[in-house]
Amino acid sequence: MFSLIKRAKRFKIDSSYGEFSCKEGETVLAAANRNGVYIPHQCTVGTCNSCSCKINGLDVLACRYKPQSDCQLKYQDETLFKTELIESSHIGESIYQVKILLDDKHQYPIGSYINVYVDRHSKSSRKYSVVENGNSVVTIHVKRHKYGVISNPLTSMNSGDVLYISEASGNYILPSNNRSYESCYGFANGSAFGVTASIVSDFLTENTDSNATLIALSRNKETNLYYEKVSKKIMDKHSNRIKIITKDFEEVLNQIDNSCPSNSMIFVCGSNDINKAFNLRKDNIESNKSILIQESF
Predict the structure, then answer these.
(1) C-alpha distances in angstroms, 139 versus 218, 251, 294?
(2) What DSSP element (H or E) covers 257?
(3) What is the pTM of this model?
(4) Which has the closest alpha carbon to 216: 256, 248, 262?
(5) Are 195 and 95 in contact (CB under 8 A)?
(6) Fewer CB near the last or first residue (10 Å), C or N of the chain?
(7) Is 13 strand, coil or helix?
(8) Domains of the chain, with CATH numbers?
(9) DSSP assignment of 169-208
(10) Cα end-to-end distance, the chain, whole Å
């Protein structure tokens, strides 16, 4: 006689930062963590409100909400602001530094994201990390793609041309404890190298007794010049306290698995695969008294 085993249902959670599955009876936050998708949170019991989001249009806490069907997750309703391009300059084989005019009413922290639209009436947009801010200007690094619906027109714009940007979303959530960390590691690939360098630079400015290592996870003809320009800028500011190296991604993961840095802040900014790989190693990182800090969306 055969017994029938009831399989737990799985629901699809769709978001602009990736699709993941949620088991029946599982919270959205637990499912996201299991799948390597980072949702900001300071607890898992509904007290901090850091994981507040919209699911199918309802305001919920990801740590408490258990889906009963496929659903869509959003972090905030988007409001667009009309602005203009100040400058677009070539800083790598296919990477551009784009400076955008800001008003003084909104905050755009380094490491946060903005959605950029080149046409107000188009649904096409692209998220870019804030690399620098200040003096009513926000700077982003844009990799131009051959068929890029946003990157091509954006990097071809002239000073004064109109574009639209969203409010800042996401950030690097720093720990609320008062611990000091001996060192800082920044891991990045492609055009994310610039924002990671800015975050590491801020860490060194605020922690004058600490050192840092900035690791480029890939290097090729397209990124060589870009990496060199970004590296020179941070080396000029913190020459005696920072080391910049290039490592193969698999080599880095092997190091995290077998000889993870201790008592360190570990910043990660890169592709979804890179963010997921590090998030899946979060327990190992924290067991070495280090802390993993990734983009929250």
Answers:
(1) 23, 31, 20
(2) helix 249-258
(3) 0.74
(4) 248
(5) no
(6) N
(7) strand
(8) 10-74 (3.10.20.30), 80-169 (2.40.30.10), 174-296 (3.40.50.80)
(9) B-EE---SS----SEEEEEE-TTHHHHHHHHHHHHHHH-T
(10) 50
